[in-house]
Amino acid sequence: MNARSNPPELWPELPLDAWKDTYSTLHMWTQIVGKIRLALSPRINHWWEVPLYVSSLGLTTSPIPYGGEIFEIQFDFIHHKLLIRTSEGAERVIALAPRSVADFYQEFMQCLDSLDIHVKIWKMPCEVPNPIPFDRDTEHASYDPEYANRFWRILVCVDEIFKEFRSRFIGKSSPVHFFWGSFDLAVTRFSGRRAPAREGADSITREAYSHEVISAGFWPGSGDIQSPAFYAYAAPEPAGFAEAHVGPTKTFYHPQMHEFFLMYDDVRRASSPKTALLEFLQSTYDAGASLGNWNREELERPAA
After folding, report:
1. Gap between the Cα atoms of 246 and 276, Å rounded
2. Are 96 and 148 in contact (CB under 8 A)?
3. pLDDT, tens digit, for every residue of 102-115?
4. How many Å apart are CA 116 and CA 207, to the nearest integer?
5. Rounded CA gap, 286 and 299, in Å?
6. Cβ pair 111, 95 in contact under 8 A
7. How wide is the angle at C-alpha 35 spanned by C-alphas 81 and 139, nearest 5°?
8. pLDDT score for 6
9. What's the CA gap between 256 and 278, in Å, rounded?
10. Are 184 and 196 within 8 A, CB to CB?
11. Would the pLDDT of 214 be above 60?
12. Is the pLDDT at 2 greater than 60, yes or no?
């Protein structure tokens, strides 16, 4: 592979204020695409049939079964296109540019129909305040290619490190995957034990947290966290988790969200972002697994 004369910054800046409108629009676009995968894929525990995955171009559904064939939908954040490709060799391309969610939804569904892929989805967005049905959303209509590309390049870096962290665990673990509902890249480890039932929880939450987990991820931020950040939590949370000693030193616990956070800017400015992120992932897991009495000897790969 030839090195480019001006390679992009590996850990670029991603200030929330600079791209929040693009973020909001892209969030809806990924939900539309993700709901196609949800509608057509066999159900897997903890909703693992739902997420997207980091690819060499952007984010992909991975192959989706349909009528004895497969097709794949991919966001290309280098050339700023949405690609729909089938195993029969057909292809449709949609430009990623400033346009409303309603306009994107209409063209996207028309492209699927033209490929003889006929599927209905629930048109109401998930996990967002004040949702607007996709086919009526003219409010979100921004797309800044620079920031879409920056976001993806961060995901590329994080995906590699999350996968290295995941490889240290030999118990049940999720893939490293991108949840379009919450718009975060996540990886989850399981103790192997059932979790206590969550009284009053909806069906999505009940399935997601049916077993004991320690989860970590990367998120662009919103609400109380107004910058991109890494998070980690244990569910159910064991006693003493909030007071556990974890690293790096700028890691903090949010008592309302019941999660540890390490801000992305603190990672990218570290002398070794990879070392800083792995310390966060490992130390928060160590705290949750030890306090939660996980059978660590059986679940963890011995150190080489």
Report:
1. 11
2. yes
3. 999 999 999 999 99
4. 33
5. 12
6. no
7. 65
8. 58
9. 25
10. no
11. yes
12. no
Strand locations in the chain, DSSP E? 53-54, 58-60, 64-66, 69-76, 81-86, 91-95, 177-179, 184-194, 211-219, 229-235, 252-254, 259-263
Q: Which amino acid is at 35?
A: K
Closest by Cα among 226, 227, 192 to 210: 192
The amino acid at residue 19 is W
Picking from 39, 38, 60, the residue whose alpha carbon sits closest to that of residue 49 is 38
Structural tokens at position 117: 């892929």
Q: Distance between CA 280 and CA 230 in Å, rounded?
A: 9
The token pair at 39 is 């509608």
Joined together, the tokens standing for residue 266 give 């603190």
Tens-place pLDDT, residues 95-145: 999 999 999 999 999 999 999 999 999 999 999 999 999 999 999 999 999
Enumerate the β-bridge partners of residue 81: 76, 95
Tell me the two tokens of residue 188: 């989850």
CA dist 78 and 57 (Å) reads 6
Q: Where are the alpha helices (DSSP H) in 41-167?
A: 101-114, 145-167
pLDDT of residue 197: 87
Q: Which DSSP symbol is given to 180? A: T
* Structure-block tokens of residue 109: 């569904």
CA 267/CA 107 separation, integer angstroms: 39
Mean residue pLDDT across the chain: 95
pTM of the model: 0.95
pLDDT higher than threshold 70 for residue 231:
yes
Residue 68 has pLDDT above 80, yes or no: yes
Q: Record the tokens describing residue 243, joined without a space.
A: 């007071």
Terminal-to-terminal C-alpha distance of the chain: 31
31: which DSSP letter?
H
Partnered with residue 182 across adjacent β-strands are none
